[in-house]
Design a protein that fits this description.
Layout: H1 17-20, E1 32-33, H2 45-57, H3 67-81, E2 90-93, H4 96-107, E3 113-116, H5 123-130, E4 134-137, E5 141-143, E6 146-148, H6 151-161, E7 163-169, H7 181-193, E8 197-201, E9 226-230, H8 233-236, E10 244-248, H9 251-264, H10 271-283, H11 285-309, E11 323-327, H12 335-345, E12 348-349, E13 351-352, E14 363-367, H13 372-387
Parallel strand pairs: 1-12, 3-4, 3-7, 7-8, 8-9
Antiparallel strand pairs: 2-10, 5-6, 9-10, 11-14, 13-14
């Protein structure tokens, strides 16, 4: 391969959240970290060169993106996702979670209902609660390991709770669904009928596998009552650079969003992040294609190993993301016991399923975006631990 996705890089000692904070998270130092969704794979060399060039300039003063930056961002989504986004409708922010919390404050009032479909990325629920909104949950339906939206329950909960906003995870973290066009269209119709603003978290947009294709919510929405949260950080492993690009169709909502940014006093992006984003979207399509092939091989390796050696744990191929959603209910362990089992017996550190909310009990989320020898070691550890039960 032109790029070496399998090179093992020592991340310990770099103030790395994934590796250096085991004790703070109540985990054993020797457990293999496969929890937080960043990759143990180097960023593209083109991005690294762009960062070096920017660093060599030597001045890192206040920095703001100009129109050309957003044109590069929009061009990426046009080429990769057939979405002709207006460059003028993007707002640059220091991260998607930051933007989601800001959007919650911009489009709802305290006490308003905000609906999510659990199990789902846990900062959604905490963001609703921390901003003093009413958390409303419509649980996903799990049929044989493939999840779907309970549209009747979703609409009923909206009506019953006076819901004003919906946080959509697309592709879905942790269950790995890439929503089909008809599913997104039906969500749009329901939200449109009841005046619900849609906050679409599409940070995993570039990871769709095996014939599935991510469809930006903006392409199916029947109105302007939405925002699409995008970032190069998952696709190119740039999370520490704090950069995201939020598309807000409505000029009135975009103004409210910018006003909320002003209230935080934190609206200028990272200068290095801007340079990295431009290089990633402008030069690194080939790198991403190769990465997706490597990750898909990792997924198939993991699924085969689990099926053949750990049949008590069930896993389905994710349609999107680089996260495996492991059904461990057959092990007969409580959530606390399951967490300790992975840590103390298997020496593997995934994200516990129960933190993703309703429907997550008995599950674990495993990040497979790592060199294959590391993945193999983790699965072998897990296999031995399950055999010893």
């Amino acid at each position: 391969m032109k790029y070496d996705y399998g090179r093992i890089i020592e991340r310990r000692g770099t103030d790395c959240l994934k590796y250096d904070y085991a004790a703070e998270n109540g985990r054993s130092a020797g457990a293999i970290p496969m929890w937080v969704a960043d990759m143990d794979i180097s960023a593209p060399p083109e991005v690294i060169e762009a960062i070096k060039k920017r660093a060599e300039h030597g001045v890192f003063g206040y920095t703001m993106p100009k129109r050309g930056y957003f044109e590069v961002v929009a061009s990426w989504f046009a080429r990769r996702h057939n979405w002709n986004a207006d460059p003028q409708k993007f707002v640059c922010t220091p991260g998607v979670v930051f933007a989601i919390n800001t959007l919650i404050r911009a489009v709802t009032c305290e006490g308003d209902g905000v609906i999510i479909c659990q199990p789902v990325y846990y900062p959604f629920a905490s963001g609703v609660k921390y901003n003093n909104r009413k958390l409303v949950v419509s649980e996903l339906i799990n049929i044989g390991g493939r999840y779907s939206i309970d549209f009747e329950d979703f609409e009923r909960k909206i009506v019953q709770n006076g819901v004003k906003a919906f946080i959509l995870c697309s592709p879905h973290n942790p269950v790995g669904r890439v929503w089909e066009e008809w599913e997104l269209s039906r969500l749009s119709q329901i939200c449109g009928r009841h005046g619900v603003f849609v906050i679409a978290d599409e940070i995993h947009a570039d990871f769709a596998f095996d014939g599935h294709r991510h469809i930006p919510y903006a392409r199916v929405s029947g109105d302007d009552n939405f925002a699409v949260c995008t970032s190069p950080t998952k696709s190119f492993n740039l999370a520490g650079l704090q950069i995201s690009n939020i598309y807000i169709q409505s000029s009135a909502v975009r103004k409210k969003f910018e006003d909320e940014l002003d209230k935080t006093g934190y609206w200028e992006p990272n200068a290095i992040g801007l340079a990295a984003c431009l290089a990633a979207y402008g030069q690194c399509g080939e790198w991403l294609d190769g990465l997706k092939n490597y990750l898909w091989e990792n997924i198939n390796f993991a699924l085969s190993y689990i099926s053949e050696n750990i049949p008590k744990i069930k896993a389905s191929a994710p349609e999107g993301t680089y996260l495996l959603w492991l059904d461990c209910r057959a092990l007969g362990l409580s959530d606390g016991e399951l967490s300790r089992f992975f840590d103390e017996k298997a020496s593997v550190w995934p994200d516990d399923g129960f933190i993703f909310g309703q429907g997550g009990s008995g599950f674990e989320r495993l990040n497979i975006a790592c060199p294959r020898p590391v993945l193999k070691e983790a699965l072998e550890n897990l296999g031995r631990a399950v055999s010893s039960l």
